[in-house]
Amino acid sequence: MSATYDRIGVDYSDLRKPDPRIAARIDAALGSARTVINVGAGTGSYEPVDRRVTAIEPSEEMIRQRPVSAAPAIRGAAEELPFPDASFDAAMAVLTIHHWQDQAKGLREMRRVTRGPVVILTFDPAHRGCWLTDYLPQLIALDEAQMPPLDFYAAHLGPVEIAPLPVPKDCTDGFLYAYWARPKAYLDPRLRLGSSSFWALDGVEQGLAALARDLDSGVWTERYGHLLDLDELDCGYRLVRTA
Ligand SMILES: C[S@@+](CC[C@H](N)C(=O)[O-])C[C@H]1O[C@@H](n2cnc3c(N)ncnc32)[C@H](O)[C@@H]1O
Q1: Reported confidence tier of residue 202, pLDDT bands at 50, 70, 90
Q2: Does any ligand 1 atom lie closer than 6 A to the CB of residue 123?
Q3: How many whole angstroms from 210 Cα to the centroid of ligand 1?
Q4: How much is the pLDDT for 8?
Q5: Whose CA is nearest to atom 26 of ligand 1?
């Protein structure tokens, strides 16, 4: 099994520390489930500690970075979950669906192996992220290409509730729009590598140079400084839960 995250995930656990406020939203969505399958589990972010978790992850590098206390991971992919029907009380998949080769099949597999709620943390490609897309408009096309539209979930999971998941101002995770209130973070090449989007895009230098100039000159603050009064911002992330 070849896995992109064997290449791009090398620093993942340092750059992508789960945010406790996002963890609380995921935990609430899992309801009273005792057994949970975490699909695209990566290094174990957002896995509940007080439920029995089965982790599925294709990348050996990501599995290697799982803490010793985390649930043991099975090497595998969403598209073919090696479990009988209705094996788990609930299922979760956090910021992973955009990497799946067959997203419809992966969702149907999650539905098949789960008795209760299926919970997906994803991004609405109709949203424009945050001010970062003013500097890097190519992110919009990338999000549109990789992220399923929101009506895709009901088509493959059955009825769903979809709620915004705003990003806290001081989010501890390092996903793409996590640094909306810390614009200088995007100028740090190491922090950028925490997001697969920066691995996927070429030609970001011009946009990042414009951001650096605007931060220096005060133009960024003039345009976007009002956002810094907010504690959290809707950057397009969505929590999907089967009804
Ligand atoms: C951005 S990481 C998210 C990891 C973790 N869920 C988290 O929130 O930190 C995306 C993960 O999806 C995994 N992935 C890629 N293709 C997959 C597939 N077809 N099925 C399941 N997981 C996959 C990657 O290996 C990677 O670990």
Answers
A1: confident
A2: no
A3: 32
A4: 78
A5: 42
